[in-house]
Write a structure and sequence with these properties.
five-stranded mixed beta sheet, alpha/beta, 27 strands, five-stranded parallel beta sheet
Length: 585
């Protein structure tokens, strides 16, 4: 199902968006909710139920949120902390708005975590109720029995019918009865912009999970900044988990506010098929999605024998672009047709993307927006969409934030500090972590970067990953990894790390890398031959590098590295795998 708007409808939508946005600055998520009601019977969300697309209008969305929110008040849960554990869905969005617009605090939990960790985070967020999909019924039931503070669970899919475990439809029915009886507790609740809206837990891949406190104004500021930079799109496809701020803030909340139809992707394996079916104008993605699109385009071109022609047309197109002439919609129409007849804007975050993927897709016609962000910034710090010329740049400061490079070294590299309306007030019930993260009003990110001659930010690496060699040299493993990825285009994933080895009876510290490659990309070669080639190519890439940054040990994996739910490689698990010299998996 694709909601195709006529030119007249698009014009009317844009006029209404302009009118709503001119009301004044957003202060809260409830502002987003109340203002968006003006879109009436326009479609708000499309999701697949048993593989069939189902559309929900703005009016239906508002009615359902009010009913669910009023139901929460009827159960004494108005203004309470309430967790959400579920796959992306229309009901996920409903639950979030029903919680926060009634003065409550949403605690979105990563559904990919082990059951015990999910339960632990629900407790850590002081949740007194939880919404969950059928997949997490067992987790929810066990948690209700384990933590007496959690009084209710609400099923967003599947059937449940007990005193403290009911369906979201039953909760809404309770709300309808209360509304009919004049209960306006949810509707009339005033939300202040500094009120806490959500506690979002960091991944905890390198330490304990910290609960980032994000206010209504943090979210509202990020939404306005996205609109300032990107502009409102007619539709978006929700791919990334909604429990992550990147998808929730930049995609879902922004789309609800400006009535950009949200198409909910039902499965990672269906991304490309759903793009073709839904024809979204935009989507938030991670680097692996860019890689899949890039590989799909070029493998198809190679298989059809059209790759040389495509490369030639890219060169011609680039020369014309340099003179302000854009022929991409015409010469790359066949590629565009494979994406629903349009090149969707793709905002890529979560992890660094490959320069060749950003550059190539930008040259073909996609608008690739990259930048730098973190949960603590709701999540945006910088943005840029000049991937054709500067694919590795993180761009300029986000419209609602500012940053500086603190105490830069002789190369201009220093820790990135930031402040702004979208920056967290701190970590939930963790005064020590909060105090350690702020200085003179600036949030210390723990990330390092530098500015180029144009003032654009380049990320150097994470402070917690910094390698300090015995000779005092500092190495950001991300720098090494980026160099290897650019030198070995077949390298899908790279993790660099220091390694203690014994050479001629003496302990030494050397640099090592683990590289994930696909055997299918080396036709006719045995695993031993592939490993030998990778090692030889890494050795060649060492030329011109400082001696302390040269790779000594190379490990090759034919399996992709373990990742968290945002598709970031879990570095420590990769490093732990390679503890023996010359080990290969």
């Amino acid at each position: 199902m694709t909601i195709e708007l006529t030119k007249k409808q698009v014009k009317e939508l844009r006029a209404l968006r302009s009118k709503i946005h001119k009301i004044g600055p957003l202060g809260t998520i409830k502002d987003i909710f109340t203002r968006s009601e003006a879109f009436g019977d326009n479609v708000a969300v499309v999701e697949k139920i048993r593989k069939q697309p189902v559309a929900h209008t703005v009016r239906e969305f508002h009615e359902f949120v009010r009913e669910v929110g009023t139901g929460l008040y009827a159960l004494g849960l108005g203004g309470k902390h309430i967790a959400i554990v579920s796959e992306n869905s229309y009901n996920w969005i409903v639950a979030f708005f029903a919680i926060v617009c009634g003065g409550g605090v949403a605690v979105p939990v990563d559904k990919e975590l082990p059951d015990d960790d999910i339960s632990m985070l629900i407790s850590k967020g002081d949740a007194e109720a939880l919404f969950c999909s059928k997949t997490y019924f067992d987790v929810a039931q066990k948690h209700l029995e384990k933590d007496s503070r959690c009084q209710y669970a609400f099923a967003m899919s599947g059937k449940k019918d007990s005193d403290n475990f009911m369906t979201i439809e039953a909760l809404a029915e309770l709300g309808r009865k209360e509304l009919a009886g004049g209960n306006r507790d949810f509707i009339d609740h005033e939300v202040n912009r500094e009120d806490l809206a959500a506690i979002v837990f960091t991944s905890g891949t390198t330490g304990t999970n910290k609960g980032v406190m994000l206010t209504h104004y943090n979210f509202a500021s990020n939404v306005e900044g996205v609109l300032d930079f990107v502009g409102p799109e007619l539709s978006t496809m929700s791919i990334l988990p909604m429990n992550h701020v990147y998808e929730l803030s930049c995609s879902v909340l922004t789309a609800i506010y400006m009535n950009g139809i949200i198409y909910v992707n039902d499965s990672l394996k269906n991304i490309l098929a759903n793009i073709n079916e839904f024809k979204p104008n935009a989507m938030a993605v991670v680097p692996l999605v860019l890689e899949a699109i890039y590989n799909g385009i070029w493998s198809k071109a190679e298989a059809s024998g059209k790759a040389p022609i495509l490369r030639k047309m890219v060169k011609i197109s680039n020369k014309l672009l340099d003179h302000g002439i854009d022929i991409r919609p015409i010469v790359f129409k066949q590629i565009r047709d494979n994406f629903g007849g349009k090149f969707p804007t793709m905002s890529c975050g979560g992890a660094p993307a490959r320069a060749d993927h950003i550059k190539s897709l930008s040259e073909i016609g996609f608008r690739i927006i990259t930048g730098y962000g973190m949960t603590e910034a709701s999540p945006t710090v910088t943005l840029q969409d000049n991937g054709r010329k500067k694919p590795l740049s993180a761009g300029y400061a986000f419209p609602r934030a500012q940053f500086k490079i603190h105490d830069p070294d002789e190369e201009g590299i220093g820790e990135i500090w930031l402040k702004g309306d979208n920056v967290t007030k701190g970590y939930y019930k963790d005064e020590e972590a909060t105090a350690n993260s702020f200085e003179d009003g600036w949030f210390k990110t723990g990330d390092y970067g530098r500015l180029d001659e144009d003032g654009e930010l380049y990320i150097t690496g994470r402070k917690k990953f910094l390698i300090i060699l015995p000779n005092g040299e500092n190495i950001f493993p991300e720098t090494v990894e980026s160099h290897i990825m650019e030198s070995l285009l077949y390298a899908h994933e790279v993790v660099a790390f220091e390694q203690n080895v014994n050479i001629h009876g003496r302990d030494n510290v050397v640099m090592a890398v683990a590289i994930y490659v696909e055997k299918s990309e080396f036709p006719g070669m045995s695993e031993e031959d592939i490993i030998a080639k990778v090692k030889a190519d890494v050795s060649a890439s060492n030329k011109g590098q400082p001696s302390y940054r040269k790779i000594q040990n190379v490990y090759v994996s034919f399996k992709e590295f373990e990742k968290n739910s945002t598709r970031k490689v879990i570095r420590q698990k990769v490093i732990d795998t390679y503890t023996k010299e010359n080990q290969t998996v």
